[in-house]
């Protein structure tokens, strides 16, 4: 069985080593808080105005301002800045928190399309940082598609055989 | 409706501000890699030998050596060290990755009991770091109990009304 990160790499075309190259430099120190706020504002302005109603509707129950803050606080925390997200909302728990939403391959691609455009609209982000961030976003989007599939998986009874993966109920 | 972190704070008795006080100092720099390896080794040695069969059986399909590595790599990454966990396994995704396991209040308390004993068996961890780490562990354990409850929640159809929280199917 493929792991979450193996599926993410296979589907996104971005290996974990490239996705987590964001950790090689401190992008928060390089770019600063305002750049992250601008990026998330550009991103969600596109999303909430998306002509694709099926995608826009995924966000219909969330306020735009909150969506922006949740996103930039997570990015800041994950890319070398202060842990703004966890101090306000606890662990990122990316799969758990995306559980209410239909994170399909199609939705991942639409999210990435808007993020690519949002990066283009944020001139304070240099080309190298853009590449690193897009690799992180692409891998993460498909990590969440892989996580979304867990919702449809039935819970298996815990098994005490030595083979693992056994589907019979434990005695 | 209470959020995940509100439930975690209420059930654990540890507010997010105290749980994430681990970020005020760099515990990895203070303690070093070997101390984290020792802590997780002490912890899982207790867990895999637990006289409480119901708790021990939760880990029956995982190898002890892998459980140790997964845990100390996550702790190292979360407490100021290099991102060992993500480079090997991707995002921590704490709720998603705990999905196969029954994370009940009782299981959280048993986990915390073993971790408290493991901390006591690791003399290289000073008293102040121990308090910070136990607060983080206690809050996180109940964050995962809150996350576990999501498994039993039915997916609600997405709703396009302006009120939010509406349970009727979208037109």
UniProtKB/TrEMBL annotation, chains A, B:
Domain of life (superkingdom): Eukaryota
- Carries keyword Metal-binding? yes
**Quick check: keyword Iron in the entry?**
yes
Q: Which Gene3D superfamilies match?
A: Globins (1.10.490.10)
Q: Its Gene Ontology molecular function terms?
A: heme binding; metal ion binding; oxygen binding; oxygen carrier activity
The UniProt keywords, alphabetically, are: Heme, Iron, Metal-binding, Oxygen transport, Transport
Q: Name one Pfam family in it.
A: Bac_globin
Question: Which family does the record assign?
Answer: Belongs to the truncated hemoglobin family. Group II subfamily.
Can you say what this protein is called? Two-on-two hemoglobin-3
